[in-house]
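Good morning C.,

I know you're traveling, so I'll keep this short. The sequence:
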Amino acid sequence: MSATPLKMIDFGAPDIVGAHVFRVEIPRARNDAVVITEQYGYRGGHGGVPEEEPRVRLNRHVWSGIRDAAKREFNTRLKATKLPAGRWSVGDNLVDRILGKELCVLAWAAEEATDDVLPIVCTRWSALRPEERWWLFSMTSAEAGLPEDRGRGWRKALRSALCDGEKSAPRPRPVESRTGPHLFGDLQ
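The tokens, ready to paste straight into the viewer:
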């Protein structure tokens, strides 16, 4: 007897209670901030782990400048693993925990960027391998991973690294490097 495949919603998030995911809250009001929150699922509320942690609040114009780059990258990887593509919509959008970490790296780098620098941030972020983004998330979230930590430590370094330079095409890399067997990690 075969197991029923796990249903995925939005950007690769498992449609089950207790999954560790990221929530992107896109408000209806154009002047309200977009908030990215890490939800720890069943692990939350135990052993000192909070149920959820807001990671970043973005002005709407910054979100508008990065959302398409994230959507393009995530949908390429979702399609490569035969999962449905996602789209951003007003309200709560769930993102797989691994992709959510990568989204935070993009958001942290872009949070103070001007409109002319946002394409540079997106291009440089797109050129990073997923594993590099995961490492950057781990380093940044350990000391400066909350909304009020803007401009500190690794977050400041991340902004400098991805904002400085000229807009250019990202270095080519094969699809396999973006779609390894650990694309989404375990679902625990």
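Safe travels,
E.
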